[in-house]
Amino acid sequence: MSGSKRIRGFLFAAIVSAVVLAAPLSAVHASTGDNTITLTSPMLQGTEPVTIYGATASLIPTLDPQRTEDSLSVQPVENLFLGLTDVDPKTTQIRAEMATKWEKNDKGDVWTFTLRNDVPWVRYDPATKKATEVRKVVAGDFEYGIKRACDPRLGSFYTPVAASVIKGCDVVSKIKPSQIKDSDFDQIAVKALSDTQLQITTNGSLPFFLSTTSMWMFRAVPKETIAEFGDKWIEPGNIVTDGPYLLDTWDRNVSRVYVKNPLYPKDVENTYGGNVERLQTIVVKDASTIYSLYQNNEVDSSGIPRAELNSIRNDKERSKEYYQRTVLATYYFGFMYDKPPFDNVHVRRAFSAAIDRKVFVSELADGLGVPMAHFMPPGIRGAVPINEVALGKPDNPGFDPDYANAEMEAAGYKDCEGFPSITILTYAGATDWAEFLQNQVQTNLGCDASLINVEEAEFSVLLKSIKPDVPTPQRPNMYTLGWNADYPDAHNWMRDVLHCNAENDFKRPCTDVDKKIDAADLETDPKKRDQMYREIEEAFFGKDGEFPMAPLYVGVEAGLVKPWYKGFFQTDGLFGGDHWDTRIIDQEAQLAARAGKGSAQ
Question: Is residue 337 located within the same domain as residue 444?
Fold first, then answer.
């Protein structure tokens, strides 16, 4: 499933990117008296751990919670590290995780969390298969982790997100990295009152704050491990984690393996009968190869090649394995304000209005998507009903060629005369988006398609290439990206993506709309708040809007899962990452199929 944050537009996403084709590795065998458990080879026992097998085309940028900023990293971080709270995979409601209870003061800006005292930090040795308790997790680990999320030296997308929530974080996050001192972090209003009590002061009474406490950048991390290994603290054998799974193998371009944490308390949260003991994933660049592995029963889930989509949906038997869900994600073309000609608002408006989103979804996604002309999708608190503030016709939102041509003329490019050459950077798999745009501006604006130069980059490279600190000459004019909800509130969209003081890949200057976003953050009246966000969406995507991006569609994930693989595929991972410990494998059926005793589907 796609997790949160900046995401790539998988038009045909795999249900899960977890698993590999390899010999069985480990299962719980015996414990010793020194807080160490040895995971011995099941091949010696004649058994195999319950395993999810699969393949993915995606590389994980990081396993560091405070550096995580994309859906690919959110997945493992969700299962390696615990949050104060968690999003229930079945109900999508906030539930207890490390925190057993919480309360706030009358003003609503000081929160006190009471934590469990029985969750260990664990180091796993891939060579010996030993899981060893380092010590127990304490409130000070959360204090350190949350303050670390505010550290400008990390260069994380989520540092401005943390700064918008935690008092004092906004001050520290703006200090020049070369000038920051350890004492500066004392300004951040997060304090361990004891080993089991944590106090957090927010930037006012924020109605959405509790929803943010499940997020990865607010998770506890082991300070001494980071001090010992530096940036290599997340490597296998070095990493110390407290979640339900441990890292066994992480060969970036080849495979990754996770094993069940035998020292993890069994009652941290409801696992709904999950029985997965290991996840193995191989990296396979070719999606059709992954699909072939699925057909051969070698992986438990797969995306669907476009050529196979309709036949699968219409096939009586294969359609039983078909999976589809609408995700809370909006995909878009981003515009760089610091790169002419997109420093001109009329050009941004023209390019957005020239895109026929209905055709885009039909031709590029075979209908797996909902055309979208503003940012927040339904399901987010404060979201405008779909396309109510959009240009164009109700059945084809955002598409208005007459308006687009008028805006190009206002920009000084009537009939596209004199329009400069531009570069659009896409992530791998989205080149056809850029080709579609070439066609649209040629057809609807009269621009020669050769004016749009297309460059493709691996997803993590794209994220680095569009950061606002990259010198303007090295930045593209446009790029492809998507945004998936971290928590169900408009603050996560308007503030965390579009506000001028967010990470601000667009490098858009501050305007009056940012003041409206600031005011909406603190508004406690739901009706007033909804109206404020309607006005904000209009200010960005209405007729006279800024258009920092050209929204395209709300995503729909589609894929295949084997009948022996069960989980909350409709709801798990809508906010944050999927919960591997709630997945269920019918191992007898799985192994029979892998051995060729079951028919390929």
Answer: yes
